[in-house]
Amino acid sequence: MHPLDGLTPPRKYWALAATMLAMAMTVLETTITNVALPSIARDLGVSPAQAVWIVNTYQLAIVVALLPFSSLGEILGYRRVFGAGLTAFTIASAGCAMSQSFTMLISFRVFQGLGAAAVMSVTPALLRFIYSQKQFGRAIGYNALVVATSSAAGPMIGSLILSVASWPWLFAVNLPIGLFILSIGSRMLPETELAKRPFDALSATLSGLTFGLIVVGVDRLLHDFMTALALLAGGAVAGLALVRRELTQATPLLPLDLLRIRQFAFSVGASVCAFSGQTISYISLPFYFQQILGRSQLEMGMLMVPWPLAVAIAAPVAGRLSESVAPSILCSIGAGLVAGGLVVISLLPTSTPNGWIMACMVLCGTGFGMFQTPNNRVMLTAAPRHRSGGAGGLQATARQFGMALGAALVALAFTAASAHGPTTGLVLAAVFLAAASAVSAARPGTRMSR
């Protein structure tokens, strides 16, 4: 098989199913636990600010490991890294489901995040070998749609599971799905040519330190200011050392060459802002609906449903619109709609009918769908074809770093504002979405080609 030819049916469709199911499961895991945080906090005897780290540890593990696993995929083979990551993710999911303490749950979430990082880092590259060069744009669209709908659908699916089962089942449901994907992937995913170079362990370490120290430093700002400053300074020093090292590498772990492409760089910045805002809102909304507006667990789940449903409808429509309308316009309007919707929700009185709240959630979901699909397509198509692996790795890193940063910031908001933490979180989320709108508006406008 020539790499430009892709796989032939039906193997192509089985391979696509394996990669998209794995992406959906790992992306879902970033938000599916949000609606369960209040009940997990009660069951394990921790504060809301501590419970946020159930989300944050998963996202932090992913963002630390994405770029190293992307490089390992080129060296060891994308299929091998994909299988190893999915195996680790599935085993860790079982551990999360059986956890009897907060420490045990956090530990398994770290391993779950590392497995997810391996899957996310190599999926865009695998798509290059599953689909032909001519059809690669179609594969990018599928991947963008899965990421958009999965990240938004997490709270809805979590609410549905919690309506019939306890929170450990949020993790247990991954077991049969993971085993099914492994059975398909081991036979259907393509073998790829291996890169003949050693793994750059120093760059991988510097990358992990950069992202990890910054996120943890943000979280510690109100708890131990001097320690937080030291962590942030350490992250900045590690980042500077990483950039200086990567500038001398023939095949850099951090694809700095892609950031010289203005459309790509602006899209990365907008993605970090948007996913920070989305994560802050997804964590804050369950607490806001229950603690501020006085809604029940069932009502809270119902109120979370419209957002992902609206994303599922708006994302493919926005993808098609981006072929004739500048993505910068769609992304700017979309992120602005989310920001406006969150501000309105934060100002609603407790007597507001649920129907009006759901209408605001529809507005937010529609806006995020309008933003994410065009933004993802710009990132993956602005890069040259031979740099698709690096583009996919940096796209996932921007998304997950935004989510990890958002989770750290919402923990900071909950600690600082105490009883007003959920409302503060929504306002903070609106600020980040407004920033995403502004960055998108400033991005050079291009029309997407078919």
How would you summarize what this structure contains?
The protein is mostly helical and 450 residues long.
Could you characterize the architecture of this molecule?
The protein contains 19 helices and no strands. It folds into 2 domains: 370 residues, MFS general substrate transporter like domains (Growth Hormone, Chain: A), CATH 1.20.1250; 40 residues. The protein is mainly alpha-helical and 450 residues long. Helices cover 78% and strands 0% of the residues. The model has no long low-confidence stretch (mean pLDDT 87). α17 packs antiparallel against α18. It is globular and about 60 Å long. It starts with 10 loop residues before the first helix and ends in an 8-residue tail after the last helix.
The amount of helix comes to over 70%
Poorly predicted regions: none
Total number of helical segments? 19
Strand segment tally:
0
Please tell me the overall pLDDT. 87
What is the H/E string? HHHHHHHHHHHHHHHHHHH
Measure the end-to-end span.
25 Å
CATH secondary-structure class of the largest domain: Mainly Alpha
Helix/strand-derived class?
mainly alpha
How many strands, what sense, and barrel or not for the largest sheet?
A: none
The tally of structural domains comes to: 2
- Indicate the overall shape: globular
Query: What CATH architecture of the largest domain do you see?
Result: Up-down Bundle
**Full CATH superfamily name of the largest domain:** MFS general substrate transporter like domains
> Which radius of gyration do the C-alpha atoms yield?
20 Å
Q: State the CATH topology of the largest domain.
A: Growth Hormone, Chain: A
Q: How much β-strand is present in the residues?
A: under 5%
